[in-house]
Amino acid sequence: MTKICFMLTSNSGIGTTTIFATHARRNIDDLLAYFSEYYNVTANYPEDKDTVDILVIPDSFGAFINERNLPVIKVPTILFLERDFEKIKIYIDNYFLEISKNKIQIDKI
After folding, report:
1. 3-state DSSP call for residue 98?
2. What is the full DSSP assignment across 4-46?
3. Helix or strand or coil: residue 73?
4. pLDDT digits (tens, 9 = 90+) for 55-94
5. Nearest to 92 by CA among 55, 62, 49
6. Burial group, residue 58, by CB count within 10 angstroms (0-12, 13-18, 19+)
7. Which residue among 59, 70, 78, 79 sits deepest, i.e. has the most Cβ atoms within 10 Å of its Cβ?
8. Which residues pair with 59 in a beta bridge?
9. Mean pLDDT (whole number) for 21-50
10. Is there a contact between 16 and 28 (Cβ–Cβ < 8 Å)?
11. Residue 109: helix, strand or coil by DSSP?
12. Model confidence over 35-46: pLDDT tens digits?
């Protein structure tokens, strides 16, 4: 199963910041609990970077080095802040739908 990593923290070298200003751990745990019903998920890139297949990144949130050149799904930051997991899921599902369509088109050639 494809493993998705939510990049919700950024390490600037000076310190670590998270997209969630308050209750960061609870918000991340809630997000992972919701998405784990649909996907294999993590939010711990440093620990899981060798097993991750796709990154989900809040648009305009912190720079990072994509060491393995993984595919990136950018999602509007506001959806994370509003905890609108259903809309975030639409972005992820649309990504997989596009991948599926492209595979079908390649297979027809």
Report:
1. helix
2. EEE--EEE-SS-EEES-SSSHHHHHHHHHHHHTTTSEEES-HH
3. strand
4. 999 987 666 778 889 999 999 989 998 999 999 999 999 9
5. 55
6. buried
7. 79
8. 76
9. 86
10. no
11. coil
12. 999 999 999 888
